[in-house]
């Protein structure tokens, strides 16, 4: 029988957190009993009492939502159990009812089967959560270690000192060993000359871009001056016309006096800043979330991290643009801690002044990215708390910003990007002839320069 790991150190948490942990643990154990072959990595996010319908048949029980599955268990000793991966759901639709309880949610599967769920007390919450999990599979990354050649040598010396039975060769062990005595002609040598040519072209393009940008900046300043000259000319023409009209005319003189009182003078000329980048829009780092409002309603949204502040925005649909949600805007200095809650995918952002600034509660398949951004932008001044039973992950590295938020659901399960060293592929290169390793190192150096130039 499967058994989940239980957190042994619960003393640092209050009674309410421990109680929630025990409740969630019992729910997870219940699912393992009902679904013996269910992945042990899956944990209950939320469950709802409801009625399951298939054709003319109806069954009363509970709907269970985990990271990658939708499940149903019938009440009592009956044996009806349904297990539906989100990746097999084609479309969802709802039929409105009275106060949500009589609403019905229809789910079309890739197999052509249509099932439905009704009689929810929290219908719209369940519908919103299912829609989010369909589009955003939980995704975690392992930050690769920056290993130096000396470290590779120390690993190699360690493996040589161990008996062959003392360590597991793994999938790549035999393959790596077979490469140790290969000559250079057995390897595909990197084309360093091509990399150098690409870097040279990139430098030329970069220089041309700088020259072009300088010319455009000068042209923009000249156009600004011309626009001001035209405005001054127009102002002087109108003023001269009033002077002419006032000669020998009482009405013209009155008009001149009134115009002088209401005239909007141009003032001293101030040239706009036309330096490239001075007027560029702020670049945000966006994370798709479900905002949990004070009344516990869920709303699809985006958590936008800017340079000085972050806020929640409505999730765009169709031609609509991101729109900032009211009362969900914060500065980084306000943040005291970020908490990965007992309930999976739930995260709280808490603030120093809790009375004036209530905690931000949200659900996200990308908690790692939220914690990472808050850690980086507060310069690690924010406290990170993992409540018992939560999945722990790495954070506080800019490397994570350069990787996609959307995981690959086609493979199923939680998506994890493991560091290359964990597969011992590096040993294949370490034991290559120096002619190959030197070329690889040179090519890597050129690629790094190319990346900085681009």
UniProtKB/TrEMBL annotation:
Residues 216-243 form a coiled coil. It comes from the Eukaryota. Residues 185-247 form the T-SNARE coiled-coil homology domain. The keyword Coiled coil applies. InterPro entries: PH-like_dom_sf, T_SNARE_dom. Keywords: Coiled coil. This is t-SNARE coiled-coil homology domain-containing protein.
């Amino acid at each position: 029988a499967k058994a989940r790991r239980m957190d042994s150190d619960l003393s640092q948490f209050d009674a309410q957190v421990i109680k929630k942990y025990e409740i969630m643990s019992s729910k997870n154990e219940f699912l393992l009993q009902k679904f013996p072959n269910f992945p042990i990595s899956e944990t209950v996010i939320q469950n709802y009492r409801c009625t399951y319908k298939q054709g003319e048949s109806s069954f009363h029980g509970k709907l269970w939502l985990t990271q990658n599955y939708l499940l149903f268990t019938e009440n009592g000793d009956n044996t009806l159990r349904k297990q539906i991966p989100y990746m097999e759901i084609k479309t969802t639709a709802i039929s409105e009812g009275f106060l949500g309880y009589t609403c019905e949610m229809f789910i079309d599967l890739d197999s052509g089967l249509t099932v439905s769920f009704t009689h929810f007390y929290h219908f719209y919450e369940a519908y919103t959560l299912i829609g989010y999990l369909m589009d955003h599979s939980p995704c975690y990354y392992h930050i690769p270690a920056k290993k130096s050649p000396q470290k590779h040598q120390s690993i190699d010396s360690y493996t040589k000192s161990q008996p062959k039975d003392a360590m597991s060769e793994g999938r790549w062990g035999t393959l790596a060993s077979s490469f140790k005595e290969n000559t250079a002609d057995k390897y595909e040598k990197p084309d360093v000359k091509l990399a150098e040519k690409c870097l040279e072209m990139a430098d030329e393009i970069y220089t041309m871009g700088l020259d072009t940008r300088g010319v455009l900046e000068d042209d923009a300043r000249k156009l600004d001056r011309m626009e001001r000259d035209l405005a001054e000319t127009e102002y002087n023409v109108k003023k001269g016309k009033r002077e002419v009209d006032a000669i020998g005319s009482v009405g013209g003189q009155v008009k001149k006096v009134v115009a002088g009182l209401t005239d909007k003078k141009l003032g001293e000329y101030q040239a706009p800043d036309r330096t490239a980048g001075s007027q560029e829009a702020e670049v945000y780092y966006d994370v798709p979330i479900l905002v949990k409002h004070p009344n516990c309603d869920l709303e699809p949204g985006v958590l936008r991290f800017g340079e000085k502040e972050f806020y929640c925005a409505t999730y765009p649909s169709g031609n609509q643009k991101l729109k900032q949600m009211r009362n969900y805007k914060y500065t980084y200095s306000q943040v005291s801690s970020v908490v990965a809650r007992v309930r999976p995918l739930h995260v709280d952002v808490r603030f120093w002044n809790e009375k004036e600034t209530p905690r931000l509660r949200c659900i996200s398949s990308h908690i790692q990215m939220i914690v990472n951004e808050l850690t980086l932008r507060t310069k690690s001044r924010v406290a990170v708390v993992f409540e018992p039973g939560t999945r722990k992950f790495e954070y506080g590295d800019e490397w994570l910003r350069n990787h996609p938020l959307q995981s690959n659901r086609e493979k199923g399960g939680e998506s994890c990007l493991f560091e290359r060293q964990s597969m011992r592929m590096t040993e294949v290169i370490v034991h290559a002839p120096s002619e190959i390793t030197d070329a690889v190192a040179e090519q890597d150096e050129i690629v790094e320069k190319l990346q900085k130039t681009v």
